[in-house]
């Protein structure tokens, strides 16, 4: 049974009837994952791209949007959603919370698109104004969604991002973090967002993020994807460092190996839509650490599937992925 669950190729597809086939347009043996590698998510993306609200609601049936950050992210990243989702918010009272959640998440992404990834000193006054206007809309909508559905985690996780962008301060963001973790103490997305907020570039202190990640993961059961928070904490450490070989130490290699084997490489790990991002997180961290035990296994399981997160921290991320894969 385990061979089927964790096998490759045809065996894996047979276990997951919703898995999308790997792209035939492969380059360097890799391909960019689309729609979380899931046919149901692809139907959702296509409905959202067409502005088909009824189709979106139908496609969401297999998922819990209040807890599935990956599925919400697929809609939030789609350009054009902001043009029609407001009508759903106003007109569909029965599904208002869902529409508010999608609209709020989209406005955060849309706001960052206006701001761009440039350093703050290079962002124009007009860009800042648009950025704040969109985040203010997101804040209002996400807070209402959270009020309508107090069991949901995803609004609070997204409010962490808008709160960081609007510089609302540690007291507000800590309250939002705690609200998310009360609803799911092991929520990976919330932990990763907090690891980012603890970085020096966001007024954190060196070492804070890694300490937070270690404490959080210590209580996680074997096979839980929260192990990715260890990998992301090390990636963030690399981003902040002037020494690009800072992770190439025996202690870091051992910690990443242990986290990989206790999480994504553990038999109890569950492959949900978008599981490839978890493996990409470890692939990047392990490659930066020049680790040689878990890294080949991680790339072997990925079979060339590439996700932009977290490789986008690098210049020419797809080339870096391909190089790391070759060298694994």
Can you list the strand order of the major beta sheet? 1-2
Figure out the total of helices: 18
What's the β-strand tally?
A: 2
H-E string: HHEHHHHHHHHHHHHHHEHH
Low-confidence spans: 1-14
Please state the overall shape, judged from the principal axes of the Cα atoms.
globular
Give the termini separation. Answer: 28 Å
Helix-residue proportion: 55-70%
Average pLDDT taken over every residue: 92
| Strand content bin | under 5%
Helix-strand category: mainly alpha
What radius of gyration results from the CA coordinates? 20 Å
User: Tell me about the biggest sheet?
Assistant: 2 strands, parallel
Write the layout of secondary structure elements.
Blueprint: H1 2-5, H2 9-15, E1 31-32, H3 39-49, H4 53-59, H5 69-76, H6 85-91, H7 96-115, H8 125-148, H9 154-165, H10 170-183, H11 188-197, H12 208-218, H13 228-240, H14 250-262, H15 275-288, H16 294-302, E2 305-306, H17 308-311, H18 317-327
Parallel strand pairs: 1-2
Could you explain the architecture of this structure?
This protein has 328 residues and is mostly helical. 61% of the residues lie in helices and 1% in strands. It contains 18 helices and 2 strands. Strands 1-2 form a two-stranded parallel ribbon. The longest helix is centred in the middle third of the chain and has 24 residues. It starts with a helix and ends with a helix.
């Amino acid at each position: 049974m385990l061979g089927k669950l964790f096998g490759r190729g045809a065996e894996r597809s047979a276990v997951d009837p919703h898995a999308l086939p790997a792209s035939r347009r492969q380059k360097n043996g890799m391909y960019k994952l689309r729609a979380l590698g899931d046919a149901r998510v692809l139907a959702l993306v296509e409905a959202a791209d067409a502005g088909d609200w009824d189709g979106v609601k139908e496609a969401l049936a297999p998922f819990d949007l209040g807890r599935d950050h990956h599925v919400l992210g697929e809609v939030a990243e789609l350009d054009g959603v902001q043009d029609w989702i407001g009508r759903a918010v106003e007109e569909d009272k029965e599904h208002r919370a869902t529409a508010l959640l999608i609209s709020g998440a989209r406005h955060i992404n849309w706001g960052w698109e206006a701001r761009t990834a440039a350093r703050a000193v290079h962002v124009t006054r007009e860009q800042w104004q648009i950025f704040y206007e969109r985040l203010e809309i997101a804040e209002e909508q996400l807070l209402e969604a959270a009020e309508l559905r107090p069991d949901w985690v995803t609004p609070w996780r997204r409010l962490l991002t808008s709160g960081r962008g609007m510089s609302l301060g540690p007291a507000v963001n800590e309250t939002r973090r705690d609200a998310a973790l009360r609803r799911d103490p092991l929520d990976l997305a919330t932990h990763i967002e907090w690891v980012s907020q603890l970085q020096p570039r966001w007024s954190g202190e060196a070492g804070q993020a890694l300490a937070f990640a270690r404490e959080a993961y210590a209580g996680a059961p074997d096979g839980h994807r929260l192990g990715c928070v260890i990998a992301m904490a090390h990636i963030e450490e690399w981003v902040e460092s002037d020494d690009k070989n800072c992770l190439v130490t025996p202690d870091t290699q051992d910690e990443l190996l242990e986290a990989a084997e206790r999480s994504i490489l553990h038999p109890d790990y569950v492959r949900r839509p978008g599981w490839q991002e978890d493996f990409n997180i470890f692939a990047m961290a392990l490659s930066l650490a020049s680790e040689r035990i878990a890294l080949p296994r991680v790339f072997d399981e990925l079979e060339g599937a590439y996700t932009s997160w977290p490789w986008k921290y690098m210049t020419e991320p797809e080339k870096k992925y391909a190089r790391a894969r070759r060298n694994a």
